[in-house]
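dude i think i finally got it to work??
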Amino acid sequence: MPGRTTKQAPGVKAPAPGRARKKAAGEPDYLIALLVDGTGIYASWKLSDSLYGKILRKALTDYHGDPYLYLRVRAVDSGGPAELEEIPVYGRENRWHLFTTREMAGRRIVLGLAYQTAKGKRETVLTSTEIDVPLNDEALVALLGRPLLHDERRLRLYEASGVREQHAPSSPGLSSP
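look at this
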């Protein structure tokens, strides 16, 4: 019937759909590691309140009350797991940028977020998925057996053709060494 409204039963409140699902599912914990290019890794993480509380109960904290956190870089390729690097990160931050090193080049790595206990032990609480770090320039040169860039002992095309002297003999970019 037009104009008629239904009444809600007394004492019953309908929860907002988004909030009920969030509380029921819990907040997800994650550590994401993205290879930006061959030289950089972007790491981002989120700790739920329950996991952060667990860390605070066990961890050594700084004068702000934040736990000492570390990003651990481990190789997981055929050579077996090996710790490559451990970087201290600030407890209130949730993102970090890393530079790849020579030890990481050409390997499969994972990142782990760890905290330091009061006894000095490091416990990993989150782990990223695997990342394949490409070979760096030095490793490619060794693998190919030749330089990636022009060999300075060989003539360049503009040197062999004489274009340099005809068009820009006084140009500092094209002048002879």
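The two ends are 94 Å apart (CA to CA).
im so relieved honestly
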